[in-house]
Amino acid sequence: MAEFKPIETQEELDAFAGKIRKEATERTESKFADYEDLKSSNAALKEQLATAEKEAAATAEKYKDYDQNISNLQDKVNKYELDAMRTRVALAAGLPYEAAGRLKGETEDEIKKDAEAFSGMMKLKKQPLADPEPIVSKKGAKRAAMKDMLHKMTGGNE
After folding, report:
1. Are 119 and 95 in contact (CB under 8 A)?
2. % of the chain at pLDDT higher than 90
3. How far, in Å, CA of 101 to CA of 75, rounded?
4. Which residue in 75, 109, 132, 136 has a CA-CA distance of 20 to 30 Å to 117?
5. Domain of 17?
């Protein structure tokens, strides 16, 4: 280190103060030398941000109903799958195609149970066919009347 020398004149004081000011100015200028670059970079980034915000707003507007549309389409698909399952179960249970829409339930097991119950109600007792032979004689007429009475008494089962 240099040896301390006291300042004795105004010129020496002014020279020393100028030296200190110059060093401080150089330090400050070196610290902020890239200020103009940062300023222009900041302006460019602000412009990019504004453009990106506009694009984001446009995209959000374009797809604002996206979730609702997806939900509606998924509901339709589920309905079609349920209808197809009802039709498949109805046909497997021996029910006519038209009866498939009347089956209740949300799962295949529930629909099968309903189809079995509905199928049980739909099954009718088989009615015997009418006797196509005409009555020919009186003896045959008596026999036919007895046969008809027996048929009615037994409920159609001989």
Report:
1. yes
2. 30
3. 17
4. 75
5. 13-64
Contact 149, 123 (CB under 8 A): no
Q: Are 105 and 113 in contact (CB under 8 A)?
A: yes
HSE-CB of 115 using CA atoms within 13 angstroms: 25
For residue 2, tell me if it sits in a domain. no
113 burial via Cβ count (<10 Å: 0-12, 13-18, 19+): middle
In a domain, 52, yes or no: yes
Q: How many domains does the chain have?
A: 2
The radius of gyration of the chain from alpha carbons, rounded to an integer in Å, stands at 51
pLDDT (tens digit, 9 = 90+) per residue, 36-56? 888 899 999 999 999 999 999
Contacts of 113 by beta carbon, 8 Å cutoff, 6+ apart:
105
Distance from C-alpha of 119 to C-alpha of 92, rounded to nearest angstrom: 10
Instruction: Give the model's pLDDT for residue 53.
Output: 96
What would the mean pLDDT of 88-115 be, rounded to a whole number? Answer: 87
Q: Specify whether the CB–CB gap between 100 and 90 falls below 8 A.
A: yes
What would the pLDDT profile of 13-41 be if each residue is shown by its tens digit?
Answer: 898 899 999 999 989 888 888 888 888 99
